[in-house]
Structure formats: C-alpha cells, structure tokens
Automatic annotation (TrEMBL):
SUPFAM superfamilies: MetI-like. GO terms for cellular component: ATP-binding cassette (ABC) transporter complex. The gene is glnP. This is Putative glutamine transport system permease protein GlnP. Residues 23-212 form the ABC transmembrane type-1 domain. Belongs to the binding-protein-dependent transport system permease family. HisMQ subfamily. Coiled coil: none annotated.
C-alpha cells in the first residue's frame, strides 16, 4: 500500500488566526500564576531556612509534595477533587492559575533558599556591625545580592511554567493547545496545527529568554 503525505503549509498558516486567541490565556495563566508563585516561593523559601523546626518542617513538606508530583495531577486534583471538598465547582482558568502558582512556588522556594544561602555569612556580619538590624541587613544587603543570583533560575522556571500551561487543555482551558484541538476537530490537519502551536510556544519562550538576558546583563552591570 503506497501512502504518501505532503505537508500542507497553507493549512498550517491558515490555523494561526484560530490559535492566536489561546495566547492571552497562556500568558494570563503563566504570569499570574508565577506572580503568586513568587510570593509563595519567598515565604516558603525563607521558612525553609528558618532555625525553628515548627516553621521549617511545614515548608519542607509543601516543597517536597509539589515538586514530587506532576503539575497535571495537581491541576486535575484542583479542578476535579477540590470541588468535592468545597461543595462547588472551580473555574478552569482559576484552577490553571492555582496549579501554576503552587507548583512554581515549590520550585521558587528552593531557588530563594539557594540564593540566600549563597551569600557569604560575612555580609550579614558586616551589616550588623554597621548598626543595621537583622531585618535591615537582610533587606538592604542580603536580598539584593541573592535576587541577582536568582534571576537565571527564576527565568528558567518561568519558561517551564509557560510550557506547563499546555497540559491544561485537559480541563478545557482555552490556551494554545486547546485552541489547536478545537481547530483540528474540524479540519483534520493535526500535523500542521500542532507544528504551529509549537512555533507559537517557541516564540513566547524565546521572547522571554531575550528579556531575561537583558535583565541579567543589567543586573550584573549594576553589581
């Protein structure tokens, strides 16, 4: 049986207008989820290095649970499982944002921990010797240096989270993959459409990488 296949570039480019409405959803879930995740990461990252076990152990537990389970399982639990506990449905978009927030928050916690612990102890002692309080020393001396060191890792986590949004088509979020699935159902051009989906994701992540490189260079220049 002789089966030949010819890639249809016209069909591929024709799919782009149908895919573009998914970009705002992808970016909204990614950036809102990451913003919340960053706050969670700072809190649990600092608790992770607390000298008090009653603060440190809950932080470690949260980090290990959400780093050790797939984000797909997490969003399915939030979307399908939590409503049974709460007694009401959860919006798919909210569930996607929540999944990115708690998942990225666990990874960012470790980035924060590593960044803060990478600063030489002498920096803290220098701040205290200048008459600064522990809080002031952390705010004005430790954190600015630690944050500059975190930028590459935070950028990588941002890219990972953007790509993770592709999993949320399973709960009906209208991001890029979901838009592609809807279009494929009527055109049967899976190869062409998924190639365009991949190209759009690549365009987003490369743009973010470029911005992060600029920020990183400026941050290093400011040292």
């Amino acid at each position: 049986m002789d089966v030949t296949f010819q890639f249809d570039w016209q069909a591929a480019f024709a799919s782009i207008p149908h895919l573009l409405p998914g970009i705002p959803y992808t970016l909204l879930i990614s950036f809102v989820g990451l913003a919340i995740g960053f706050i969670i990461g700072i809190i649990f990252g600092l608790l992770r290095i607390s000298p008090f076990a009653w603060l440190r152990i809950p932080a470690i537990t949260y980090i290990e649970i959400f780093r050790g389970t797939p984000v797909l399982v997490q969003v399915l639990f939030i979307f399908y499982g939590l409503p049974q506990l709460l007694g009401g449905p959860i919006n798919a978009l909210v569930a996607g944002i929540a999944a990115i927030a708690v998942n990225s928050g666990a990874y960012i916690s470790e980035i924060v921990r590593g960044g803060v612990q990478s600063i030489d102890r002498g920096q803290k002692e220098a701040g205290l010797s200048l008459g600064l309080s522990r809080r002031q020393t952390f705010r004005y001396i430790i954190w600015p240096q630690a944050f500059r060191r975190m930028i590459p890792s935070l950028g990588n986590q941002g890219i990972i989270s953007i790509k993770d949004t592709s999993l949320f088509s399973v709960i009906g979020v209208g991001e890029l993959v979901r838009q592609g699935q809807v279009y494929i159902a009527t055109t049967f051009t899976a190869l062409e459409v998924y190639l365009m989906v991949a190209m759009l994701y690549l365009a987003i992540t490369l743009s973010l990488s470029l911005v992060l490189r600029i920020i990183e260079r400026k941050g290093l220049a400011g040292q």
